[in-house]
Amino acid sequence: MRQENREERSPARFISHFFRFLLLFSVFALLSDDVLADESGLRLTGYIKTILTLNDFTGSDVLIAGNTLEDRPELEWTSITTLRLSLFWQLGNSASAELAYELIPRIQDDSVESFFALQAANPLTYRAVDFSEEITVTGDASSLNIFQNLDRAFITLSPSFGDISIGRQPVAFGSARFINPTDILTSFSYIELNNEERIGVDAVRVRVPVGALGELDAGAVFGDDFRLAESAAFLRMRLPLLGMDFSPLVILFKENVLLGVDMVTSIGGAGFWLEGAYTFANLADHHEADEDYMRLSTGLDYSFTDTFYASVEYHYNSAGSHDPDDYGEILSGLEKEIAYTEGAVYLLGSHYIAPGFTWQATPLMSFSSSVLFNWGDRSLLFFPDMQYSMSDNAVLEAGAFISVGSESDIVINRDSGSAAVSAESEFGLYPDTYFISARIYF
């Protein structure tokens, strides 16, 4: 009996109750009548976004256990709509609060499987408390699922020495254009379409200006039920050094330690960046050096005219492999497991080149394109994209991810959740994906 009482009064449980109170207080404060009456301090924004995707598996040998290849459709579609509402409340000069909520209906073929790509990071990993993500789920031929996401619920205090943010908020790092080695909490993969908002994490963050251009940035990010083994902490400095912005970074996450650096400068009118990170994996439990890994991204960008911009980036991933025969082991978690399960690594190879450009054809229409090329197995993903502004607050977008590479065999067992992969190239695992998106802002 005494042991149970000690557990109930533990620091983690106290902090958990405090954090729940903070989230509820933020919701109540933003929705109270007194706040709504203060039009000068309250701002409501949001958007409605619909993304329709079509995956083309033509030519791919994909077998769902229990089905024959003939039973599986070559074309599979998904429709995802996001309704996002954001409330921002300015409390004088010393405090503010923000709340954002998303309602996400998704309709898709019942056979759709997310086997062809690893997720850069689990978007809900660093949340101590949360609502249930799923509201309704059906299993019809065209499945309708409705999800919800309380994405922002935090207050920011601004004393004389800096800013303190407490609650659910975005936390992101890095300056690389395509792949960010230091951005491991809520990073996006190359094929992520819904990347407009970085998902919120439960955190306490302090930012203090240092000199005219520098900053000290420190914080704690809380995982499931505030458990230390599921949480993270970071310390970052940003300071001018030899004509560049220099940002060293340390992140402790899930019993791993990341040492990173981010450098940004200009060379002959072109922008230059170098972002790298070395991760010491599993320090708390039988650390083995062969589980450690390094990632690095460096590149250049240049605006040739007011309407044409181009960039190129090189990425190195030591957690990946030069040999496509190893991809199956990586996908099944048998090799470099921590890098892929906890470190937001999702690429299977070691060396990548990513060129890209954006052309503003007219004031209302822009074209962009990029390529992610795996130097080891000579496979690539080609990403053409077009955006058209229908009005000041409405945008229509269409594009595709075209995979080029030797085809691979995949057998999926739905019951066990496992996948057996015989890969000859990384991007041969991906289907061709076509999408159209409409966004309305308010």
Task: Explain this structure.
This protein is mostly beta strands and 442 residues long. It has a single domain (2-441), classed as Porin (Beta Barrel), CATH 2.40.160. It contains 5 helices and 22 strands. The protein has an 18-stranded antiparallel beta barrel. Strands 2-20-21 form a 3-stranded mixed beta sheet. The longest helix is centred in the N-terminal third of the chain and has 21 residues, at 11-31. The radius of gyration is 23 Å and the shape is globular. The chain starts with a helix and ends with a strand. Residues 1-11, 29-39 and 64-70 have low confidence and may be disordered.
Total of DSSP H or I helical runs spanning 4+ residues = 5
Number of strands: 22
What is the residue-averaged pLDDT? 84
How many domain modules? Answer: 1
For the record, the CATH architecture stands as Beta Barrel
Q: What profile does the largest beta sheet have? A: 18 strands, antiparallel, barrel
- CATH level-3 fold name: Porin
- CATH homologous superfamily? Porin
State the secondary-structure class.
mainly beta
The best one-word shape is: globular
| Regions with little confidence, pLDDT below 50 for 5+ residues | 1-11, 29-39, 64-70
